[in-house]
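Practice problem 4.
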């Protein structure tokens, strides 16, 4: 497989002690002065110019040593009833059952190694590889083949929770594209989900880029097709003077739960359709919780004053239909956010529509069951889930819900 870069994200303690990390301000930012806000921003920007760039470290050439042995795929997590529905489902369900998308997490490295070894040209490898492997399943590794417009070139979609990147990470991303010189096909996109995409990559280069991202605390697995997409948070997290909750660490925690710290999590590798999660940290809903499958809207509890989240579900935005999220009459503290995400995903994975991809998002499951039935099933799932702390939310007190409206003067 050749040389890799050791995927060693910093621990939380190491991150907090690192010179490239500015400790997030208190969630009670409404009382901070303009000078304090801008001073903190200036400190962050100044510090980011001096990030150390550690040398890459080699990894063992065996992919199983890097990612662990293959014990379960996404299909293995499907209950028998769900599996039976998938067998009669859409064309994509049949593709997933024939060969699970999670295998791409390792196969992308094997395909890249074959090209780097010189054993095959791209054209030869393409002819001997199942087209669904190349054009569909690689999306589970965040690698998209653009066969019609740029055959032999690929797009890589990353995972950047809350859109937070360091200059060290950006240096690496820029160098990954810069090696292509003036090749017009190689560019970087900034997406509407606070994410980055690298376009015009050659398949043989993807393995080194993936492991380089892992070494720097980023990833790209499970960023395409029927997966949970990049977790969106407040773009002004940490510097918003009207911030209720700093969303950065929570978005990272949700991402880590879903992706197994960017190494791939087969438990969520066979969803009926894509899935979006957004966390709003202020009354200005910058992260657009109303068009995400799960939306967390930060509000203080009316009785205790504890900062938690109103939960809205089933937002949908496409050319054919636009539907705002449904109020669930549910409030959860931060400690129950992972439990709620886990529980909603289980309900969606096991009961979502697998026959019609146009009606396979969470919204249609909620409409099929009704809001009250979905809420009841969700609370039961949360109470029985011990993986992330069994518990449940509570009905909203009358004065907890707050309108996400207004703004603050540009400084």
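Answer key:
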């Amino acid at each position: 497989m050749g040389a890799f870069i050791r995927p060693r994200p910093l621990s939380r303690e190491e991150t907090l002690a690192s010179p490239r990390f500015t400790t997030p301000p208190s969630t009670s930012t409404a009382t901070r002065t303009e000078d304090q806000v801008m001073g903190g921003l200036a400190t962050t920007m100044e510090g980011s110019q001096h990030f150390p760039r550690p040398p890459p470290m080699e990894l063992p050439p065996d992919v199983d040593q890097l990612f662990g042995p293959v014990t379960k795929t996404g299909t293995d997590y499907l209950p028998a009833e769900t599996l039976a529905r998938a067998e009669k489902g859409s064309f994509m369900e049949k593709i997933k059952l024939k060969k699970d998308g999670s295998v791409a997490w390792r196969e992308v490295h094997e395909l890249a190694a074959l090209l780097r070894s010189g054993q095959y040209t791209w054209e030869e490898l393409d002819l001997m590889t199942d087209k669904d492997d190349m054009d569909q399943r690689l999306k589970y590794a965040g690698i998209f083949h653009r066969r019609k417009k740029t055959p032999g070139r690929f797009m890589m979609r990353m995972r950047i929770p809350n859109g937070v990147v360091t200059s060290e990470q950006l240096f690496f991303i820029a160098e990954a594209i810069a090696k292509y010189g003036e090749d017009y096909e190689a560019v970087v996109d900034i997406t509407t989900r606070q994410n980055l995409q690298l376009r015009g990559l050659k398949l043989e280069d993807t393995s080194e880029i993936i492991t380089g991202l892992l070494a720097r605390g980023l990833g790209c697995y499970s960023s395409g097709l029927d997966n949970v997409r990049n977790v969106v948070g407040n773009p002004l997290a940490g510097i918003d003077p009207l911030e209720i909750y700093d969303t950065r660490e929570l978005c990272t925690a949700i991402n880590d739960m879903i992706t197994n710290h960017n190494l791939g999590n087969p438990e969520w590798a066979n969803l009926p359709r894509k899935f979006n999660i957004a966390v709003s940290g202020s009354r200005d809903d910058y992260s657009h919780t109303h068009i995400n499958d799960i939306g967390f809207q930060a509000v203080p509890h009316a009785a205790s004053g504890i900062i938690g989240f109103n939960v809205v579900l089933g937002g949908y935005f496409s050319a054919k239909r636009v539907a705002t999220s449904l109020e669930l009459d549910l409030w959860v503290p931060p400690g129950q956010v992972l439990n709620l995400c886990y529980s909603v995903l289980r309900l969606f994975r096991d009961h979502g529509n697998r026959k019609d991809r146009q009606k396979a998002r969470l919204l249609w499951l909620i409409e099929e069951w009704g809001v009250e039935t979905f809420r009841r099933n969700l609370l039961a799932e949360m109470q029985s889930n011990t993986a992330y702390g069994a518990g449940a939310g509570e009905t909203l007190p009358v004065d907890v819900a707050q309108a996400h409206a207004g703004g603050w003067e540009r400084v």
